[in-house]
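User: Can you predict the 3D structure for this chain?
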Amino acid sequence: MKRFATLLLAGTLLAGMAAQADAATLRAAARVDGAQIRLGDLFDGLDSDTAERAVAAAPEPGRRINLEPAALGRIATANGLDWQPTTGADRIMVERASISLGPERIQEALIEALADKGVQSKLDLSLDNRTLTLHLPAGMDETLVVENLAYDAGRGRVTADLLVPATGLRQNIGARAVEVVEVPVLTRRLMPGEIITEADLDWTIVPRDRTGSDTVLAAEELIGQTVRRATTAHRPMRVRDVRAPVVVPRGAVVTILLQSPTMTLTAQGRALADGAVGEVIRVANTTSSRVIDAKVASDGLVTVVPAGAVQLTTASN
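Assistant: Here is the predicted structure, written as structure tokens:
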């Protein structure tokens, strides 16, 4: 009877162990933070002590490894788990969590370092290795230091050493540097005569060598102006592309005004060209048919410029 009770107890314990082993199931994937892979990263259904047991070295930050069925079977056996792979699909991908410092972060660090060095030009950098990414262990200080910085403006080249003090990681890099400028551009197609408003403008960055001395660099040079011809959106504007709004259209009847300290003379004329306030246009006197130069003063009014004063006086006499 005593022997039977002992066997019954042993059977109960074995059944309990088997039940615990049966509860261990392979996870679909694993992501680890530290330098070691633990049983709990690979299998679900383990008690806390077993789950914390380290079984393998983790991959480098940002990297991943694939544990094959045979390797998982050996890990399970060595740690007393009653688990073995049944198909070739019983495998798991283990990824090491990381902090990723990608190309944009690296370019920002270079631009800040160039500014600290006194480079005032706005530069667009393109890394020689456009996919360069530095991977740091999760939770690590992300400080990035630029050393041995060199900028060759003539060749458009930047070289430097990148250092991550927290890990001692050092990376030599090179980049192409293009001087750029930010310019206002239209957000939509405008037709001649349409007045440009602030809502019609956006900003874009273009290489400096694609601009000219007449490229518009300030929004104030466009707001309140009109386009001379139908324009294409999102391209740099030139000074000749815009003008002040036309207040005297070609063919309009206008009053020609000549004033001096001793007299004021007026005559009727016809505009031979479009004119904005302040512009000098050709105007034909409708009485004498003489053509004079006149400055547009307002809607329907032009004033004679000095070169036309004698002609108007003669026509009025």
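Residues 1-22, 307-317 have pLDDT under 50 and may be disordered. The radius of gyration is 40 Å.
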